[in-house]
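for the recovery benchmark. tokens below, seq after
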């Protein structure tokens, strides 16, 4: 590799950085944490269940990644404060990078959705990222740099039946991203979002499962017709964009939602045959 190429690629390096990826025991979070580790970052992650932490730690180790996981619910300010202290104890410093990935979805027709269901989705998907960002920003200000990546969604832009709480939360997360950008840009903290399209993970498994007659799920066919790439995304499709937004290569990108959706937001969809 010649010096010029090595020069620009070095701006994507995360050597010497500590990254916290929330909910990174599987799915998108696991892929993003793996990518950040491969770019040189030290990895911390959390989940609500110790058994998930244990299994994920083993999975990271299989990939040659020393990741430290801790039990913490992102909706608990106390548990998140404890998570940051755990990270400080293990790595001797607080996170340089935060990926707000932890999230849930409930698919319930709005008139059947209880306020409690709605609140739980908003609590985890929108209040959780607020709590985690508040917990890491003071350390980032002290360091003079920081990267916050909020995992938004194409539902930050579009609605669909049965996911009122999720779409409201992800729309709010888009605006929280812009607000953190506005409030902390002068502290050299960049806050951006990644808006995945439809990604094949446990969260979307119900939308892809084979029908009783062995045919593809109608929603599976619908998404592939709506996506120019003609396929579902994979967690691996998000790895490069996450490294870009976590690295010096994006130091003048702030308040931006990077849609990694195969073009679905740009496309009217393929005419049914
Ligand atoms: P997933 O497979 O359901 O994984 C979600 C992760 O978040 C799990 O590890 C889960 O742990 C954790 N989590 C949930 N609630 C938590 C809480 N209160 N505190 C701590 N951890 C918690 O989801 P995914 O598909 O990987 O999605 C990850 C993120 O991407 C989510 O924010 C999702 O909204 C977003 N997204 C997904 C898609 C997609 O198509 N898959 C597209 C756009 C955006 P538990 O095992 O404890 O539940
Ligand atoms: C759904 C899906 C989507 C994806 C994702 C799309 O039920 O519509 O779960 O919401 O999770 O957010 O970007």
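predicted aa per position
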């Amino acid at each position: 590799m010649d010096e010029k190429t090595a020069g620009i690629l070095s701006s994507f390096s995360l050597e010497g950085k500590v990254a916290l990826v929330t909910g990174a025991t599987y799915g998108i979070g696991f892929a993003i944490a793996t990518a950040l580790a491969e770019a040189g970052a030290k990895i911390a992650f959390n989940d609500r269940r110790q058994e998930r932490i244990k299994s994920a730690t083993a999975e990271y180790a299989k990939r040659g990644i020393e990741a430290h996981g801790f039990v913490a619910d992102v909706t608990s300010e106390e548990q998140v404060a404890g998570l940051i202290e755990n990270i400080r104890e293990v790595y001797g410093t607080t996170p340089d990078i935060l990926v707000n990935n932890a999230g849930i979805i409930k698919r319930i027709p709005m008139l059947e959705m209880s306020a409690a269901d709605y609140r739980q989705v908003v609590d985890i998907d929108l209040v959780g990222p607020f709590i985690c960002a508040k917990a890491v920003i003071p350390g980032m200000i002290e360091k003079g740099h920081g990267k916050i990546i909020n995992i938004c969604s194409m539902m930050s832009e579009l609605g669909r039946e049965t996911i009122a709480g999720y779409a409201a939360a992800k729309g709010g997360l888009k605006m929280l991203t812009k607000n953190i950008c506005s409030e902390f840009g002068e502290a050299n903290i960049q806050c951006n979002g990644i808006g995945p399209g439809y990604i094949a993970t446990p969260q979307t498994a119900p939308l892809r499962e084979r029908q009783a007659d062995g045919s593809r799920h109608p929603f599976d066919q619908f998404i592939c017709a709506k996506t120019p790439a003609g396929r579902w995304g994979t967690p691996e499709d998000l790895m490069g964009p996450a490294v870009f937004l976590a690295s010096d290569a994006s130091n003048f990108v702030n308040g931006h939602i990077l849609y990694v959706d195969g073009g679905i937001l740009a496309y009217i969809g393929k005419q049914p045959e």
